[in-house]
Amino acid sequence: MTTNGGFQPVFCTIVPPHVLDRLARNEDPSLSGPARRSLEHDAYQRTHRRLTTVIGAPAVAAPAGAVADQPHRTIYDAGHQQDLPGTKVREEGAEPGADATVNRAYTGLGATFELYLKAYGRNSIDGEGLPLDASVHFGTDYDNAFWNGEQMVFGDGDNEIFLDFTIPVDVIGHELTHGVTQHTANLTYFGQPGALNESVSDVFGSLIKQYALGQSAAEADWLIGAGLLAPRVTGTALRSMKAPGTAYDDDVLGKDPQPATMDDYVRTGRDNGGVHINSGIPNHAFYLVATAIGGNAWERAGQIWYDTLTGGELKQDAAFADFATLTVKAARERYGAGDELQAVQKAWEQVGVRTL
User: Fold this and answer.
1) Of 18, 19, 45, which Cα lies nearest the Cα of 270?
2) Strands 223-224, 239-240: parallel, antiparallel or unpaired by DSSP?
3) CB count, 10 Å around CB of 356?
4) How far is CA 15 from the centre of its chain?
5) H-helix or E-strand containing 116?
6) DSSP 8-state code for residue 264
7) Helices in 14-99 by DSSP H: which ranges?
8) Is residue 16 within 8 Å of 276, Cβ to Cβ?
9) Closest CA to 224 of 207, 213, 214
10) Is 197 within 8 Å of 317 (Cβ atoms)?
11) How many CB atoms neighbour CB 334 within 10 A?
């Protein structure tokens, strides 16, 4: 259940549709072919997600004998098909096998579970020990990864533009955090609330990577999807929280369109109203908060964002100003009128979002 009157999971992918749309128009079939197939896969899964939203997804409970506050992971091999989940290839407690993709997916699910449990006392993404399932080797040259409301799915990439989607642990954390949002604030996936939905996933995806690597806010790269782009691509990642709009500038992909402030807010009907684009603004606000506070970003800065997401006051249709106002309230309630509150207030001012 959610805190906002309904269980409405959405279909969320790590690669924005506008990126795949551009690739699909490329004259080189080695680039356009995988992108077109990926868009077709996404369209099918999006329709499936709508259907399960209407009729209800099957209830999933922790299996008998599962240990409380421990992950319960199952990895499946889709065998380059589209039928989910595929063949079970690794379950909780099993030793690593020869397939590096399977091992990375298993480790990434565990890293996500650990951050939420150790930093915020949350038992899996629903708070009640939900088993974490993932399918790898989905489709043929599939250029995406997604959370479908029930499980994680990873493509292998086309090896021309994108590599294996299990490589960046923050991609895994990002997609699973859509599940956390689904079970808490349930932010509508359009316009500013949709951009907040994406930003929250970027924030905690980055924190999961930082936690796993033991990096402070100053040491982190603040990139989403570093290591995902193939060598031919001129770029470092899918997005940059430190400097939105600079993650890539490539003759095939184009230039990263993310704005860092409201001065450059993008008004568009594509990408559900620009959810993957305008998320750069709240992303940058979090980066500014975390680096101003210093230390480990998952502690004070992350706690403020987590309190905001799970506190019960964040509405499904929240705009940036609504979210910003609640972060100020969360900072004041948890830390008083100290450095944390000042960092939050200043960050939103810097990106041009007013707090009420």
Assistant:
1) 18
2) antiparallel
3) 9
4) 10
5) helix 100-120
6) G
7) 17-24, 29-55
8) yes
9) 207
10) no
11) 13
| Whether 199 contacts 286, CB under 8 Å | yes
Structure tokens, 129: 């020990």
* Chain center to CA of 128: 20
Residue 346, SS3 per DSSP: helix
**339: which residues sit within 8 A by CB, 6+ positions away?**
292, 293
Through-space distance between the first and last CA atoms of the chain, rounded to whole angstroms: 29
| CA distance linking residue 133 with residue 91, whole number of Å | 9
Tokens of 73: 């992971």
Inform me whether the pLDDT recorded for 269 exceeds 70. Answer: yes
The tokens describing 220, both together, are 């982190």
Question: Which contiguous run of DSSP H or E holds residue 133?
Answer: strand 132-136
Model pLDDT for residues 240-265, shown as the tens digit of each residue: 999 999 999 999 999 999 999 999 99
Q: Does pTM top 0.85 for this prediction?
A: yes
Amino acid sitting at position 221: D
Among the listed residues 114, 117, 112, 119, the one whose alpha carbon sits nearest the alpha carbon of residue 134: 112
C-beta separation of 183 from 1 below 8 A = yes
pLDDT tens per residue across span 170-212:
999 999 999 999 899 999 989 999 999 999 999 999 999 999 9
Contact 294, 218 (CB under 8 A): yes
Choose among 148, 156, 40: nearest CA to 102: 156
Question: Are the CB atoms for 245 and 284 separated by under 8 Å?
Answer: no
Question: What are the catalytic residues?
Answer: 175, 276
Q: Cβ distance 93 to 66 under 8 Å? A: no
Structure tokens at 134: 């993932």
Reported as a single tens digit per residue, the pLDDT across 45-54 is 666 555 443 3
pLDDT at site 38:
86
- Dihedrals φ, ψ of 229, to 5°? -80, 140
Q: What tokens does 133 get?
A: 């399932």
Determine the Cα–Cα distance for residues 106 and 91; give it in Å rounded to an integer: 8
Q: Which of 202, 190, 189, 278 is nearest to 238 (CA)?
A: 202
Question: Pseudo-torsion of CA 41, 46, 50, 51, nearest 10°?
Answer: 0
Place of tokens 């629903």: 126
Q: Which residue has the tokens 């940036």?
A: 320
